[in-house]
Amino acid sequence: MSEERARRVGLNESIFRQVNEQIESLNRDFGTEERTMTAVCECANGDCTERFEISVSAYEAVRADPRRYVLVSGHAVPEFESVVHRGDGYEVVEKEAGPAGELAEETDPRS
Fold first, then answer.
1. What's the CA gap between 49 and 62, in Å, rounded?
2. Cα angle at 54 between 50 and 59, to 5 degrees?
3. Which of 26, 30, 42, 111 is deepest in the core (most CB within 10 A)?
4. 70, β-bridge pairs
5. What is the rounded distance in angstroms from the CA atom of residue 102 to the CA atom of residue 100?
6. What pLDDT digit, counting tens, does each position of 58-97 carry?
């Protein structure tokens, strides 16, 4: 796969990660940390609008690593990421080393 495609994959996922950060922030503001949140799939498909439920604590665990994203099950791009956890209707993926992984770290809103 090309380096340009790898960067596009990483950029698309980073945009959706920022959306979920806003959702999670609202949950925190309203004191719902032990509840679930409806997250937007953070996959590479810029047209994907699928959503899933995830506990805020599980989302926080994913966000502890800038190379990890939460996706609707089956949306991973194996050329650039590996599934490291499967939840109920979602998967946690970790970016491989290379352009997509570097971009994940560069665009981490918590860094």
1. 20
2. 110
3. 42
4. 92
5. 5
6. 988 998 999 899 999 999 999 889 999 999 999 999 988 7
Containing 81, the helix (H) or strand (E) segment is: strand 81-86
Q: What is the longest distance spanned by two Cα atoms in the chain?
A: 43
Distance CA 61, CA 76 (A): 19
Residue 23 token pair: 């959702």
Write down the pTM of the prediction: 0.69
- Measured CA to CA in angstroms, residue 87 lies from 2, 15, 41, 83, 93 at distances of 30, 22, 13, 11, 11
Whole-angstrom Cα Rg for the chain: 13
